[in-house]
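Notebook entry, cofactor series.
This is the third protein in the set we're modelling with a bound small molecule. For this one the ligand is zinc ion. I'm keeping the input format identical across the series so the outputs can be compared line by line later. Sequence and SMILES below, as received.
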Amino acid sequence: MPAICATHDSLAVYSTMRSRHTEIDAFATLDRVRAAADAGQLRLLRADCPLELTEELVTREAKYSFVHFLECRGCGAFVFFGIHIRGTPILKTVPFENIDHWPWDNTETQIDNMPEYLADTAR
Ligand SMILES: [Zn+2]
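Returned structure with ligand:
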């Protein structure tokens, strides 16, 4: 895996709104993640909701956190993108096992593309 990947390392949009800390701007980063997914650069594997519903559900505070696991098609890394109602957004690469180990809430909006993904990668 390359140290820097042109696809997933350019997803985060930072804001300095909260003094001292530089943190990820949730919705600006979400826009980039969506655009990359739409362009086929990222593949959504499992998530609390489709990327196109995330902003609305976060704004409504439908639940505490909205988590997305994606595969970077540029380098094969697995990317975790989490938006929390009262916390800092998180965008980072994670081991594949984290996708299964995440304590999913089984909401109606949940996305699970793992069966298709595993079928594709088994070839
Ligand atoms: Zn990548």
